Amino acid sequence: MHKSGFVNIVGNPNVGKSTLTNELVGEKISVITSKAQTTRHRIMGIVNTEEYQIVYSDTPGVLRPNYKLQESMLNFSESALGDADVLLYVTDVIEKTSKNEEFLHKVQHMDAPVLLLINKIDQTNQKDLITLIEEWKVLLPKAEIYPISALNKFNIDTVKKRILELIPESPPYFEKDAMTDRPARFFVTEIIRGRILLYYQKEVPYSVEVVVEEFKEEKDIINIRALIIVERDSQKGIIIGNKGLALKKVGAMARKDIEKFFDKKVFLQMFVKVEKDWRNRDNILRNFGYRL
Ligand code: GDP
Ligand code: K
Ligand code: MG
């Protein structure tokens, strides 16, 4: 008997969805930062054993769209409700109870089992946690509730065990040696974007998209050429920085991350280009892989 299923991870920005995904998958497939909107796509990570194949999907945080880009991000989250065999709704002790009632309503009325994971319990005390659990029982009565700490790996094994019980008998959906549905280039863009989010202040990093123009793997080195797309000339200046110093620093950090990810030496070149108002332009968003 072989089990196989889709386990989809949704919730508000910054509650720890990507940290949890990496913990469940056992690989760093999703970029984690303390900034909201780090994850823009739906990213799958696949766990294989002889007996089962679990396909985890990390999604962008559920937020009210201000840009076409954010509409697409919300689409990724809503589509994750549709094809889940198990839904992991992640919240944390900081956001208390969720603000997005519309999304919660959809979660409450879906067919698949829902595990409500209250993350970051390292940041609270038992009394507050119990109060929070009581509030969630009212908001999502159908969900099973698990307090966890993705960062400290607390209670993750319990959640894994429960997931395994819940996924159905089924042949595998992907090759048994697949680790993700994403090509190598995708991880490069995500890693660079993660570094940009951490390095620059305020709005600038959110108006950035990264395109990998070249990814050439040779015996001892991977040659990568990446384009950083911004919306305005002023942003281009900020990204590059005085005498190119900012871009150099970000490039060095991103290169190290990429080397770690692929376990190989990397030569990384980065260029900056202005595409006016790309976050609102359909054709550009499509080219970047967003579904509209
Ligand atoms: P996402 O936006 O929901 O994907 O959240 P991330 O996984 O990117 O995490 C957002 C921030 O929360 C990061 O700074 C994480 O290190 C932090 N974080 C995630 N899990 C925990 C946890 O269990 N405890 C604490 N204290 N911080 C956490
Ligand atoms: K985040
Ligand atoms: Mg994320």
UniProtKB/TrEMBL annotation:
<dbReference type="Pfam" id="PF01926">
    <property type="entry name" value="MMR_HSR1"/>
</dbReference>
<keyword id="KW-0690">Ribosome biogenesis</keyword>
<protein>
    <recommendedName>
        <fullName>GTPase Era</fullName>
    </recommendedName>
</protein>
<feature type="region of interest" description="G1">
    <location>
        <begin position="11"/>
        <end position="18"/>
    </location>
</feature>
<dbReference type="GO" id="GO:0043024">
    <property type="term" value="F:ribosomal small subunit binding"/>
</dbReference>
<dbReference type="GO" id="GO:0005829">
    <property type="term" value="C:cytosol"/>
</dbReference>
<feature type="region of interest" description="G2">
    <location>
        <begin position="37"/>
        <end position="41"/>
    </location>
</feature>
<keyword id="KW-0694">RNA-binding</keyword>
<dbReference type="InterPro" id="IPR004044">
    <property type="entry name" value="KH_dom_type_2"/>
</dbReference>
<keyword id="KW-0963">Cytoplasm</keyword>
<feature type="region of interest" description="G5">
    <location>
        <begin position="148"/>
        <end position="150"/>
    </location>
</feature>
<feature type="binding site">
    <location>
        <begin position="58"/>
        <end position="62"/>
    </location>
    <ligand>
        <name>GTP</name>
    </ligand>
</feature>
<dbReference type="InterPro" id="IPR006073">
    <property type="entry name" value="GTP-bd"/>
</dbReference>
<keyword id="KW-0699">rRNA-binding</keyword>
<dbReference type="InterPro" id="IPR005662">
    <property type="entry name" value="GTPase_Era-like"/>
</dbReference>
<dbReference type="GO" id="GO:0005525">
    <property type="term" value="F:GTP binding"/>
</dbReference>
<keyword id="KW-1003">Cell membrane</keyword>
<dbReference type="InterPro" id="IPR027417">
    <property type="entry name" value="P-loop_NTPase"/>
</dbReference>
<keyword id="KW-0342">GTP-binding</keyword>
<dbReference type="Pfam" id="PF07650">
    <property type="entry name" value="KH_2"/>
</dbReference>
<dbReference type="InterPro" id="IPR005225">
    <property type="entry name" value="Small_GTP-bd"/>
</dbReference>
<dbReference type="InterPro" id="IPR030388">
    <property type="entry name" value="G_ERA_dom"/>
</dbReference>
<feature type="region of interest" description="G3">
    <location>
        <begin position="58"/>
        <end position="61"/>
    </location>
</feature>
<dbReference type="GO" id="GO:0070181">
    <property type="term" value="F:small ribosomal subunit rRNA binding"/>
</dbReference>
<keyword id="KW-0547">Nucleotide-binding</keyword>
<dbReference type="InterPro" id="IPR009019">
    <property type="entry name" value="KH_sf_prok-type"/>
</dbReference>
<dbReference type="GO" id="GO:0003924">
    <property type="term" value="F:GTPase activity"/>
</dbReference>
<keyword id="KW-0472">Membrane</keyword>
<comment type="function">
    <text>An essential GTPase that binds both GDP and GTP, with rapid nucleotide exchange. Plays a role in 16S rRNA processing and 30S ribosomal subunit biogenesis and possibly also in cell cycle regulation and energy metabolism.</text>
</comment>
<dbReference type="GO" id="GO:0005886">
    <property type="term" value="C:plasma membrane"/>
</dbReference>
<comment type="subunit">
    <text>Monomer.</text>
</comment>
<feature type="domain" description="Era-type G">
    <location>
        <begin position="3"/>
        <end position="169"/>
    </location>
</feature>
<feature type="binding site">
    <location>
        <begin position="11"/>
        <end position="18"/>
    </location>
    <ligand>
        <name>GTP</name>
    </ligand>
</feature>
<comment type="similarity">
    <text>Belongs to the TRAFAC class TrmE-Era-EngA-EngB-Septin-like GTPase superfamily. Era GTPase family.</text>
</comment>
<feature type="binding site">
    <location>
        <begin position="119"/>
        <end position="122"/>
    </location>
    <ligand>
        <name>GTP</name>
    </ligand>
</feature>
<feature type="domain" description="KH type-2">
    <location>
        <begin position="200"/>
        <end position="276"/>
    </location>
</feature>
<feature type="region of interest" description="G4">
    <location>
        <begin position="119"/>
        <end position="122"/>
    </location>
</feature>
<dbReference type="InterPro" id="IPR015946">
    <property type="entry name" value="KH_dom-like_a/b"/>
</dbReference>
<dbReference type="GO" id="GO:0000028">
    <property type="term" value="P:ribosomal small subunit assembly"/>
</dbReference>
